[in-house]
Amino acid sequence: MTAARPGAPRSGVLPVEKGPGVTSFQVVAHIRRLLRAPKVGHGGTLDPDATGLLPILVGEGTKLTPYLGALDKEYVARVRLGLTSDTQDASGKILATRPVPPFDAAAITAALVRFVGEIDQIPPMYSALHHEGRRLYELAREGAEVERKPRRVTVHAITLEDLALPELTIRVRCGKGTYVRTLAADLGEALGTGAVLAHLVRSRVGPYRLEEAVPWATLQDARDGGALWPALLPLDSALAELPGLTLDAPQTRAFLHGQAVPAPAGLSGLARVYGDDGALLGVGAAQGGQARPERILHADPPRTPVLPR
Amino acid sequence: MRILRGLPSFPAELAPSVTALGAFDGIHLAHAKILQTTVARARALGVAAMACTYEPHPAAVLHPERAPVPIATPEENLARMARAGLDATLVIPFTLEFSRIEAEAFVTEVLVNTVRAREVVVGYNHTFGRDARGTAALLQSLGARHGFVAHVLPPLQVDGQTVSSSTIREALRDGDPARARLFLGHPYSVSGPVLRGAGRGRTLGFPTANLRPDRPLILSPGVYVARARWTGKGEGGGGTAGAVVNIGYRPTFAEHQYWVEAFLLDFSGDLYDRALTLQFYDRVRGEQKFADVEALKRQVMADIETARAAAPLLPAEE
């Protein structure tokens, strides 16, 4: 049993490329028009200047926002040494310039590894975090600076991709909540030169890769959803890292009604839950031999043709 | 940084602590990461940042016949640990007797009763105690029992390889000090007094400083770009210069002797009996045998030019 109604909008995840100079929300609005789908969201904001992968959540996919936010992300960042700015990126107001010594790859690498692992970041003033009910960037624009608590984030790996002083390019694989701008600025401090983020490309969000995303040019030229619907990936692609749990018919009904269902004793934490017909029912939280519904998804039934309506 | 040798010498007022555990030879980037984490956690908790290490290297005691050649001397390692910001290092004399202590007893004696670790930081592959039964996993479960947190740092990847003492030795054996430096975070170096050699360099027109190295060399024979540093009192004092360093058995003169000789760029003076440190940055060429003295002279001139071009690009201070 699944709850998808005939004619309901298709649900899924659409990985697209965001070009420069547009907000993530503008991309969402554009796709909403193209797909004529009422519910469209995105899985993690990219700054207007940044480009690269933006996973678009369609229909029931919008309920997956927190799970996409929690996925590891990979960025390719170009960092300009010798400058500091109020926003930590190159488009901000330049606050100071410092000379850049002739660092080589070994010197840069030795500084980079300091930022691998669980690190504490002081979030930038120009960020969407809240302080006493207001966005930090609103306060920053008024010229205010407030004390921010360090946030612990995880940087899985940083590799030096290119070194052409005063710029260098790094590939960063990191967990939720990592500010690459701040990483660039902190790297600059570690090297004694200061630094700003010159350009940022997001190359991966969990299982979604930029190479497989709908190209920005295609998205700009599209007049309807025809080019987009075939690229829509199933909802459970966003949950691929979670273990799967398949229910029988009575359990399926119980789960959809919000009741806990039996789960293997060894299973703990979040799980993808499937119904007796193989349709994704949602996300369950397993513990002590039971799985409690955490998020119910009225996903498309299996083998649903994904075509424009 | 205070250096404490042996458990009984540990002053009670240094405890409690956050303690890094390891053999720490070379203080490469992964070691630096462990020490950095230790210092950061200690500062966060307001306790002493400690390291607990061994002398000599456990492998040299347990299986001397196949123990790896050390990358750095104990003094150099301790100096780098001090620079990482540790408050103290406990150096445990490593004996066969010590190696027979069970992992659980090591944790109780050293970590719980002596340094009173609130948190312990180790690399993913660190082992301790009898038969190396003390693994990271055991440390974590013992931590839960004794009330300390064990941080186990994952392998650190640089340029597609895991940073470890063995990858560094491998690079050095390949005659690639630049790659070794990439993993170490600082150049591989040797130190030693400048000896009075046969004076042959001088007769060839290239006076060299002949060094008696303070450690067995890992770097393969060849010619390298290095920075020379020396200390000294009185006339001239200490100094630094770019250098071309020949490491080899000196096959040309059929003296089968391992030798390190450095030609210092733009330097004239007497360094005899001074302590000289050579930091290796790059390779100029491999070991070569020459047909005659003229061919050798021509090659040495070319080597010096190569080094002269590279020397101004050497990083300032490491």
Descriptive report:
- The complex is a heterodimer of chains A (309) and B (318).
- Chain A has helices at 24-35, 65-69, 105-112, 136-141, 180-191, 216-221, 249-256; strands at residues 12-18, 40-42, 51-58, 73-81, 83-85, 94-97, 117-121, 130-131, 134-135, 151-164, 167-174, 195-205, 208-209, 244-246, 261-262, 269-274, 280-287, 290-296.
- Chain A has 309 residues and is of the alpha+beta class.
- In chain A, strands 1, 2, 3, 4, 7, 10, 11, 12 and 13 form a nine-stranded mixed β-sheet that branches. Chain A has a five-stranded mixed β-sheet with strand order 14-16-17-18-15.
- In chain A, strand 16 and strand 17 form a beta hairpin.
- In chain A, 43% of the residues are buried.
- By secondary structure, chain B is of the alpha/beta class.
- Chain B has ten helices and 14 strands.
- In chain B, the strands form three sheets. Chain B has a six-stranded parallel β-sheet with strand order 1-4-3-2-5-6, sandwiched between helices.
- In chain B, helix 6 links the parallel strand 5 and strand 6.
- The relative contact order of chain B is 0.12.
- Chain A binds chain B through residues 101-107, 109-110, 113-114, 116-117, 120, 157, 159-160, and chain B through 29, 32-33, 36-37, 40, 153-154, 156-159, 178, 181-182, 185-186, 313, 315-316, 318.
Q: Give the N-terminus to C-terminus distance of chain A in angstroms.
A: 23 Å
- Approximately what portion of the residues of chain A adopt beta-strand conformation? 25-35%
Query: What ranges of chain A have pLDDT less than 50 throughout 5 or more consecutive residues?
Result: 1-8
Q: What is the spatial order of strands in the main beta sheet of chain B?
A: 1-4-3-2-5-6
Approximate strand percentage of chain B = 25-35%
Overall number of strands of chain A: 18
Radius of gyration of chain B: 22 Å
Number of DSSP E strands of chain B:
14
Portion of residues within helices of chain A? 10-25%
State the oligomer: heterodimer
Given the C-alpha coordinates, what overall shape of chain A results? Answer: globular
Uncertain residue ranges of chain B? none
**Envelope shape of chain B:** elongated
User: How many separate helices of chain B?
Assistant: 10
The H/E string of chain A reads: EHEEHEEEHEEEHEEHEEHEHEEEE
Content-based structural category of chain B? alpha/beta
What separation lies between the terminal Cα atoms of chain B? 19 Å
Sketch the topology of chain B as an H/E string, one letter per element: EEHEHHEHHEHEEEHHEHEEEEEH
User: What's the overall average pLDDT of chain A, rounded?
Assistant: 90
